[in-house]
Amino acid sequence: MKNTILLILLSTLLSCVTIKVETPILSDVEKSLYYLASDELEGRKTGTDGIEKAAVFIENIFKENKIKPYFKTYRDSFNLKEIIGYNIVGYLEGTDKNLKNEFVILGAHYDHIGKAKEVNGDVIANGANDDASGTVAVLEWAKYFSKANNNKRSILFTLYDAEEMGLKGSEHLAKKLKAAHLNIYTMINFEMIGVARATGETMAYITGYEMSNMAEKLNTYANNEIIGFLPQAKTYNLFKRSDNYPFYNEFKIPAQAISTFDFTNFEYYHHVDDEADKMDLKHMTNFINKMIPALQGMINAPTKEITIINE
Q1: Which of 111, 135, 143, 254 is paired with 242 by a 20 to 30 Å CA distance?
Q2: What is the reported pLDDT for 21?
């Protein structure tokens, strides 16, 4: 009888214990960013040895953090004439028996352009901001959510190849998931989050702001106005120029891109000086951490609160 009571008390105590999950730290962000944007990867152009190294790096982080492959392997391969591209797709199953059948996709592209116009003998376009920064963010969230084990919906962590060739990787994956009738709730693409905006501006902005209530809901979940509106986003048609668009096109769901690059705060787009040492690591780490409650709110909401406003 005493043993039974002790077991009940122990069980009750354990159920009340909240396991604290460490949030992403600057040193981890720095380590991943400096590797992905290093000269060793030679600009991560699709079909090169450099992007293969990036793919292996991403796969290893997924393996180390018990993020499963969604397909038979982590790689969703596709052909571009004689070139083979690879999206890397990790899967974290939801914890709720019903909501786990709905998916949230967090993505970024891990390819870049390889080489660019020479400057002081340098020809490697390292793509630190574009889009090693977004890739690092997705990897940090994968690590966090795998440890937190509190995602009611299932999550796909998706890193796209061949974005620089016309969104070919995300287009291939979106069509493949559509053919499989995957129930996708939302998709967010993270594009160039390595530099901070000016004081007084929202930390980031979302493309297609007026098309859904995503920005409003993310800010509500975060209890912080993180995501705002950028007029130039519509002027430059950014909604259709990033890896969110194929998912919107196929599924007609809230599928949008979030960025902190606003055309005033970084001058090295597709330039050899898009280097890791020009990234604001404190800003990146802060953004990644501030987005966690926003993403948690979206992933764990009891109903599909984020909706399309205008199709």
Answers
A1: 143
A2: 84
Confidence of residue 169 (pLDDT cuts 50, 70, 90): very high
43 inside domain: yes
With contact defined as beta carbons under 8 Å apart, do 222 and 216 qualify? no
Contact 134, 190 (CB under 8 A): yes
Q: Provide the pLDDT for residue 20.
A: 78
Report how far residue 223's alpha carbon sits from residue 215's, in angstroms, rounded to the nearest whole number.
Answer: 12
Tell me which residue of 197, 162, 196, 183 sits closest to 55, measured CA to CA: 162
Output the pLDDT for position 71: 98
- Could you tell me which of 223, 227, 261, 228 has the C-alpha nearest to residue 242? 261
Q: Which two tokens stand for residue 42?
A: 């030679």
Number of domains observed in the structure of the chain? 1
Q: Is residue 121 part of a domain?
A: yes
Residue 308 covered by a domain: no
Tell me which residue range forms the domain holding 33: 24-300
Residue 179 lies in a domain: yes
Q: What is the 8-class DSSP label of residue 8?
A: H
SS percent in the chain: helix, strand, coil, step 5: 45, 20, 35
Instruction: Give the orientation angle of helix 214-222 with respect to helix 281-300, to 10 degrees.
Output: 100
Residue 18 pLDDT: 45
User: 234-243: long-range contacts (C-beta < 8 A, 24 or more apart)?
Assistant: 236/263, 238/207, 239/207, 239/208, 239/211, 241/167, 242/163, 242/167, 242/189, 242/191, 242/207, 243/107, 243/108, 243/109, 243/160, 243/163, 243/167, 243/169, 243/170, 243/189, 243/191
At residue 277, φ and ψ (nearest 5 deg) are -70, -5
CA atoms of 225 and 222, how far apart (whole Å)? 8
Q: How confident is the model at residue 19 (pLDDT cuts 50, 70, 90)?
A: low
Cα-only R_g, the chain: 20
CATH assignment at residue 122:
3.40.630.10
